[in-house]
């Protein structure tokens, strides 16, 4: 089962998790990280790392964030480079999380990433999709 880290501004992550629990029961391998004004990026990174550690059962981890480029998205992006089978998604909504929750058992991380981006429409993207638009910088001497 894919682990989920829901990380959003203010208390949206906690709200999403509470609504999912009301519909599906206790959330296995799911943690929330709420980011609010004044929280240091160091503390956010530590909270994200702790959440990752708790949800990683070896099948992959999906970071679900609210906005592209926001602090939770950036912290998740930095962590995802160190962990294979992790994906960073931005633009999640409650309706989208509800729709995608059953796929946690059915997909690997890459298939889940593609499914949630397709289901979410224009407002949803992933770190991988963003990197395909803007490939990493390569020095000419490294070619």
UniProtKB/TrEMBL annotation:
It comes from the Bacteria. GO terms for molecular function: transferase activity. InterPro entries: Bacterial_PTS_sugar_comp (IPR051471), PTS_EIIA_man-typ (IPR004701), PTS_EIIA_man-typ_sf (IPR036662), PTS_IIA_man (IPR033887). Residues 1-124 form the PTS EIIA type-4 domain. Its EC number is 2.7.1.69. It is found in: Cytoplasm. It holds the Pfam family EIIA-man. Its main location: cytoplasm. Keywords: Cytoplasm, Kinase, Phosphotransferase system, Sugar transport, Transferase, Transport. It is an enzyme of class 2 (transferase). CDD domains: PTS_IIA_man (cd00006). This is PTS system IIA component yadI. The lineage of its organism: Bacteria, Pseudomonadati, Pseudomonadota, Gammaproteobacteria, Enterobacterales.
């Amino acid at each position: 089962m894919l682990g989920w880290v829901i990380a959003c501004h203010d208390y949206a992550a906690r709200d999403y998790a509470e609504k999912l629990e009301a519909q599906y029961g206790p959330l296995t391998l799911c943690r929330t990280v709420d980011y609010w004004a004044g929280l240091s990026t160091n503390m956010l990174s530590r909270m994200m790392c702790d959440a990752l550690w708790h949800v990683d059962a070896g099948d992959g981890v999906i970071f679900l964030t609210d906005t592209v480029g926001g602090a939770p998205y950036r912290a998740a992006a930095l962590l995802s480079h160190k962990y294979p089978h992790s994906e960073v998604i931005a633009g999640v909504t409650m309706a989208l999380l509800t729709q995608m929750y059953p796929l946690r058992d059915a997909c690997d991380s890459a298939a889940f990433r593609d499914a949630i981006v397709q289901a979410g429409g224009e407002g949803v993207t992933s770190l991988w999709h963003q990197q395909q638009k803007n490939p990493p910088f390569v020095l000419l001497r490294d070619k």
